[in-house]
Amino acid sequence: MKYVTGLHCIKCGKEYEADPERYLCDDCEDGILDVDYDYQKIMAEWSKEDLKANPDQRIWRFEPLLPIKPETEKPKLAVGDTPVYNSPVLAEEFGIKKLIIKDDGLNPTASLKDRASAMAVVKAQEADAKTVACSSTGNAASSLAGNIASMGGRMNAVIFVPDRAPAGKLAQLLIYGADVVSVKGSYEEAFYLSAEAIKKWGWYNRNAAINPYLVEGKKTVSLELAEQLEWEMPDWLVFSVGDGCTIAGAYKGLYDLKQIGFIDRIPRLLGVQAEGCAPITEAFRTGEELEVTAENTIADSIAVGKPRNWLKAVRAIRDSAGEMINVSDDQILAMMRNLGKKTGIFGEPAGVAGMAGLKKAAAEGIIKRDQSAAVVITGNGLKDVKNARRAAGNPIEVEPDLEKLTAIFVEQGVT
Asked: Annotated binding site: which residue ranges?
């Protein structure tokens, strides 16, 4: 970790050595840590030209801004290098100047969380751990299981999920060979059971809300987006928000790039939560401590009633002069259908919540007509086929008779 100078608590500022098994501050309750870098040294020894010349398109191309040892073996999955699209059709529909979409559902296990899990596999090795564990509503779990599997059976994954986890995500976990524990309860209960088990058996902790290194993996989405946009950042960058780690990581990546002179400004962040589970939005708006809420939304990947990285998320949004907004499940379902029909991108409910929030923010005048925005789709729709079918409706059913088919087409306006 050539450029890492240490860790610090975001609450009290206490500093720590960058030990791979250092998760939280000793002095603060839920004292989340942040990784510190020697930006001056990075500026002196790394450039945009160096990055461009790197043939490795995975997240490891950003190694100077990652808390890893160069010699540590990397997971074999090709995490990162997800595509970006310009959507003038949706930009016009929403009433904004320009809309960029980054489809992170095209990561190897179909979600942005591959970025954090790949980092977890590296840090687990640096901690001499053979087993990595986490609690998850699905995506963190499947991404960990897949990245562990890519190591060829030399490491193990133990996953705790609430029993509401979608069947597609459970199937992934089992196919990847993880030990899966389905907890009869909420995500919060699954989290606490995983924490107790991790402590009892000494496993490496992949829970992103606890482990500061995983936010460093998530930040690669904004590092990558900036490079793909040739360092010309949009006015707004939009993310769905669950436990707060992803949007906090995105800000950290942007902050890093600003400090080393790769970008000249940080976009304003728009954080989007589901109306049925929006504790971070409430804390952002009131300025008060976070209050635990119910997990009442179809967007399972952001249904976190007690998010542990809320403070880092709120600070990131405020520091970027950003905003938060909530969307209903109906707005999410409508956006799944609209996004698929007009861009060919298939997002799961949590994956498109950010897009639904962008549309609402533009309608309310938060994002202006002369402003640009980029949205990250965080997960693929095949993760949750049940809600995809709910969004899309049913196919046309007909007997094998052309006349009957013609009549149905006329009735339904199919041309």
From this structure: 139, 378
